[in-house]
């Protein structure tokens, strides 16, 4: 009887103990499989995550700390300056602070793009860009800019400029993943121009002829220049010493050809045919979009627009902003098939 009882107790013990043993073994194997699947120790994974975050942070810092070498053309000094700080001075020099905020933001993006293009296509040996508007783009110190504004408007105007730059931080215009040559000018006279008609060479696919409404409302839209016959001859002789004009004959001075945008392509002065771009330079006209009149003893140029007419018109940008367009919409209006990306 005792033997039977002992047998039953032993059997019951085995039934309870064995499942517990196998259950613990199964849990241990599962944990090991988990560690083997995640082949990197937890501390290594944490370190790599930290390194990735640090890399991202460094990249952001690098974007924030882009510096350029700015050549001050009057002194010859080369100054290293933060890109965004540089743009405060450019935008304040290039566009009136009274313009719409979206126009100023468009100008900031265009100026930043133009700067990056110059960095990639250097014109100056030891610097990235200069502060001469006849060569690169305009720049004015904060102190000088403030001094030109009415005192009561200084803080408001400067804040508007800096906000326009800050709110577009890092944004540039690209074509086929490269910064474009972002030309801009004051007033297109309602229609922009293609580069080949201004500088020759080949065109840029993103710089096409576009029309913009509302530019006629700006003072830059229309101007006149009037010269006596003697003054006309004197100015032309500086370039063409053999110039001869019979002012009694109407056909001696006439426009022979226009560009696709309506600007003067070729004009005849006596025994010379010259380009409209050259005529603009010789006679100090605001653009080569002009007509001629011949009052008694004089030649009058009636000019439309201000600047070379290529790329973004600044007054056109302001006009579009007044119509409710954003900086991005303004840019894609003036530059064809482009993207706005971040440096």
Rounded mean pLDDT score:
86
Flag low-confidence runs: 1-63
Q: Approximately what portion of the residues adopt beta-strand conformation?
A: 15-25%
The assigned structural class equals: alpha+beta
State the major sheet: 3 strands, mixed
Write down the Rg. 35 Å
- Care to count the β-strands? 14
- Overall, the morphology is globular
Order of helices and strands: HHEEHHEHHEEEHEHEEEHEEEHHE
Spatial order of strands in the largest sheet: 2-1-3
Distance between the termini: 92 Å
What portion of residues is helical? 40-55%
The count of helical stretches stands at 11
Description:
With 343 residues, the protein is of the alpha+beta class. Among the domains are: 66-182 and 324-342, no CATH class; 217-304, no CATH class. Helices cover 43% and strands 18% of the residues. The chain contains eleven helices and 14 strands. The protein has helices at 2-37, 42-64, 83-94, 101-120, 142-148, 154-166, 196-199, 229-237, 276-283, 314-322, 327-334; strands at 67-71, 78-82, 129-130, 171-175, 178-179, 184-185, 222-228, 253-258, 264-269, 272-275, 290-293, 298-304, 312-313, 339-342. The strands form five sheets. Strands 2-1-3 form a three-stranded mixed beta sheet. Strands 5-4-14 form a three-stranded antiparallel beta sheet. α3 packs across α4 (101-120), α3 (83-94) packs across α6 and α4 packs across α6 (154-166). The model is unreliable at 1-63 (pLDDT under 50).
Report a brief summary of the structure.
By secondary structure, this protein is α+β, with helices and mostly antiparallel strands. The chain is 43% helix and 18% strand.
